[in-house]
């Protein structure tokens, strides 16, 4: 097998290994988490006290289904195939439920390891009862999590300059874009997710990046910043930064509570638009997010393969300095 070199096909997720989740009560008592065919409904799982999440870095397998493990993955063997097996639902003692995705690493046509991507926080020494196993929705669920999204109430700058709440937009409306002027919305969708843990929305408080109101977006959403002075040390004026990497717990923080209504905006090409006055990306169609699109929605623009602004993304290491968000605020106003 050969590994894809297209950067847009590379996926990194933070997972537990199956050995970290043990059946403490039920038919499979004593066994670790497995793939769908071996799971038993109503079995109870606990996360081991010593469990540590790690990075699973994969590329889309261009020679077959699923993914191939990359050399910089913390788990697994480079070149092995990884299949997205299923989406499971577990129930906590207080009755709340959340979902998780099960990935299976294959080596020599056998199962080498199994990984669990929880879509909410999971605690040690807590009973989680398996209440749902779904093989059909896993790919779509993975795609929905990957889609960059704005939250209900976010004001989007229209072609006319008018500020419109995102929930009032519809396909065909023209939005102002940074690179291509007015562009029509091809598709808009809404997804409701549990706002817990790694996937909880990120709040950028009013004024922090010259935004007119609080901007609340999905954690992997990328913002475009033009630095009048390169205070970040990126070696260029134009930078694309992931909001997850700006979290400081005060002016930029995750809102971990209840549920969140996420909205996705799709254009013929990947665009930089304006949300609460901040330049932010629209939905990018790549091998992971494509499954979130309904039948008949398939943008043909080459701009979902590559756009110049995608080359400006700043990696987390450069943002791991005292309050990077304040440096960006000053850099964009000097």
Please tell me what the overall shape is: globular
In terms of quaternary structure, what is this? single chain
Which strand order spans the largest sheet, edge to edge or round the barrel?
1-4-5-6-7-8
The number of helical elements comes to 3
Mean pLDDT: 88
Proportion of β residues?
35-45%
Order of helices and strands: EEEEEEEEEHEEEEEEEEEEEEEEHH
Number of strands: 23
Please give a structural write-up.
The protein is mainly beta. It is built from three helices and 23 strands. The chain has helices at residues 138-146, 316-319, 324-331; strands at residues 10-17, 21-25, 44-47, 54-60, 67-69, 81-91, 97-107, 110-118, 128-134, 150-151, 155-157, 163-165, 174-177, 181-184, 187-194, 202-204, 215-217, 222-226, 238-242, 252-254, 259-266, 272-275, 278-281. The strands form seven sheets. A six-stranded antiparallel beta barrel has the order 1-4-5-6-7-8. The chain is globular, with a radius of gyration of 21 Å. The termini are far apart.
């Amino acid at each position: 097998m050969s590994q894809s070199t297209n950067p847009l096909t590379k996926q990194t997720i933070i997972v537990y290994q199956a050995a970290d989740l043990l059946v403490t009560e039920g038919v499979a008592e004593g066994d670790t988490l497995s793939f769908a065919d071996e799971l038993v409904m109503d079995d109870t799982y606990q996360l081991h006290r010593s469990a540590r999440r790690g990075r699973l870095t994969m590329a889309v397998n261009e020679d077959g289904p699923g993914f191939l493990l990359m050399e910089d993955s913390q788990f697994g063997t480079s070149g092995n195939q990884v299949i997205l097996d299923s989406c499971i639902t577990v129930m906590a003692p207080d009755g709340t439920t959340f979902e998780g995705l099960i990935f299976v690493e294959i080596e020599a046509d056998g199962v080498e390891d199994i990984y669990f991507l929880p879509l909410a926080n999971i605690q040690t020494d807590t009973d989680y009862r398996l209440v749902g196993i779904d093989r059909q929705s896993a790919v779509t669920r993975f795609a929905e999590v990957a889609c960059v999204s704005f939250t209900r109430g976010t004001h989007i700058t229209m072609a006319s300059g008018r500020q419109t709440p995102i929930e009032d937009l519809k396909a065909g409306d023209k939005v102002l874009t940074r690179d291509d002027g007015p562009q029509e919305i091809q598709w808009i969708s809404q997804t409701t997710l549990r706002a817990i843990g790694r996937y909880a929305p990120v709040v950028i408080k009013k004024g922090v990046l010259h935004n007119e109101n609080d901007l609340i977006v999905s954690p992997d959403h990328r913002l475009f910043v033009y630095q009048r002075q390169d205070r970040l040390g990126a070696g260029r004026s134009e930078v694309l930064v992931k909001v997850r990497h700006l979290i400081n717990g005060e002016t930029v923080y995750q809102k971990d509570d209840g549920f969140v209504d996420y909205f996705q905006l799709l254009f013929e090409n990947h665009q930089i638009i304006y949300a609460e006055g901040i330049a932010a990306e629209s939905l990018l169609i790549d091998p992971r997010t494509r499954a979130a699109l309904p039948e008949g929605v398939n943008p043909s623009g080459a701009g979902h393969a590559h756009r110049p602004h995608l080359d400006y993304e700043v990696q987390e290491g450069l943002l791991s300095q005292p309050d990077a968000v304040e440096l960006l605020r000053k850099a964009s106003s000097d």
